[in-house]
Design a protein that fits this description.
The chain is an alpha/beta fold. The protein is built from 15 helices and 12 strands. 41% of the residues lie in helices and 21% in strands.
Length: 399
């Protein structure tokens, strides 16, 4: 056997009977494709305390600012809906200062239709400001963009909780590597929150952390806001019967169906689910490059005009793939937390009715905070997240 070294000292070539084994290269390749492996890290913001306060003021977030922040876009490895390795991006925000050990908040964002609006990419979006809010109080914050948003590849599977969970867990792993390179570390107990679409994702992450299946991490508390926790019995029926904002219902139904149809085999052709002329354009509208205003203007004003009667009836009596798609969100509260849980929602929300939160409370045993009849969907995030920050400070102050 002859051993020789070429160029990169980490690569050893073994030659035996004409067979070459690239041992070091194979190990490096395996590490590169491991879940949570960091592919790149780019600092996207460096804010003083005054600049941080200005960001929060512009986002209409009222909370004291204790420090400036540094924000990073992390490109890392996770798995797609088929279980294949894929890149994803996420935001990591760290408080400025010399603290060696940091408490970590995981923030799961709400509905986004364009990849450029993801937390790690768009500095003007509310989700970036919400992450900065927690970091301004001394917490580290990990906010996944989810698959198909930000700098990842492919299309986003909207309200597909298992892929949101994978992206979230793997960002925690990647974030741990990034802070380790800065000679800092995380406290193992994670404070978890999320808004709207991120509500079920937050509950799923809390359960995963509690199960002890994520090395180095466990939950400290979970606080979702205005999540669609019961698609089968609450959310979809309310969207179909006109109790909610009809244009928002059209957007949410079309997004969910068009983006997860292949995952759950919901239909073979768009015309099975959508009426013309919308069947011809709905898939293209949710390619990650159209904003909500463009999509809403391109779709009808009511679900009745969007969906074929036969498919609307299937939604009212789900089975097969449709039922599995609904259960993806509906099962996220079906666990018994051993950590504090508070579920926030508003009776005035006409996009995600508070009955979702009540169903989650009944299933999980968590507490419920009603934000009031005068608070709409977006307003629930503005009101709840500063309250959640205060609660997190009481439970697990920044180290």
């Amino acid at each position: 056997m002859r051993v020789s070294r070429i160029f990169d000292r980490s690569v050893t070539i073994l030659s035996c009977s004409g067979l070459l084994v690239f041992a070091g290269l194979a190990a490096r390749t395996a590490d590169h494709y491991a879940r949570g492996a960091v592919m790149s890290t780019v600092r996207v913001a460096h804010l003083s305390s005054a600049e941080t306060a200005d960001v929060l003021t512009k986002a209409k977030i009222t909370t004291p600012v204790q420090n400036g922040v540094d924000a990073y876009r992390v490109l890392y490895r996770t798995v797609n809906t088929r279980g294949t390795s894929t890149p994803a991006s996420g935001l990591l925000v760290l408080p400025a200062g010399s603290a060696h050990r940091l408490r970590l908040v995981a923030y799961e964002h709400g509905t986004l239709t364009t990849r450029r609006n993801a937390p790690s990419v768009d500095a003007t979006q509310p989700d970036r400001a919400r992450a900065i809010m927690f970091a301004s109080a001394g917490y580290a914050v990990a906010a996944p963009d989810y698959l198909g948003l930000g700098k990842g590849v492919g299309r986003h599977a909207y309200e597909h909780v298992s892929s949101e969970l994978n992206a979230s867990v793997d960002l925690l792993r990647a974030a741990r590597t990034v802070v380790g390179r800065q000679h800092r570390e995380f406290d193992s107990k994670v404070l978890v929150t999320g808004f709207a679409q991120g509500g079920p994702a937050a509950m799923a992450l809390g359960e995963k952390l509690q199960d002890g299946k994520v090395q180095h991490f466990g939950p400290a508390a979970v606080a979702p806001v205005s999540g669609p926790f019961d698609l089968e019995h609450v959310q979809v029926p309310a969207e179909l019967d006109g109790r909610l904002s009809q244009r928002q219902s059209v957007l949410d139904l079309a997004y969910w169906l068009a983006s997860t149809r292949r995952v759950y085999h919901l239909y073979r052709r768009p015309a099975e689910a959508f009426q013309e002329p919308y069947a011809s354009s709905v898939t293209r509208l949710f390619d990650g490059h159209h904003d909500e205003a463009t999509i809403v203007a391109s779709l009808p004003s009511t679900p009745e005009r969007l969906l074929t009667p036969a498919f609307a009836d299937r939604l009212r009596h789900p089975a097969g793939g449709l039922l599995r798609a609904m259960k993806s969100s509906d099962d996220t509260c079906a666990w018994r937390p051993r950590v504090p849980v508070r579920i926030y929602a508003a009776t005035g929300d006409r996009r995600v009715p508070i009955a979702n939160a009540r169903a989650c409370q009944a299933a999980s045993g968590g507490g419920l905070v009603d934000l009031g009849a005068r608070i709409d969907h977006d307003g629930s995030a503005r009101l709840a997240l500063p309250q959640i920050l205060t609660w997190f400070r009481e439970l697990a102050p920044p180290t």
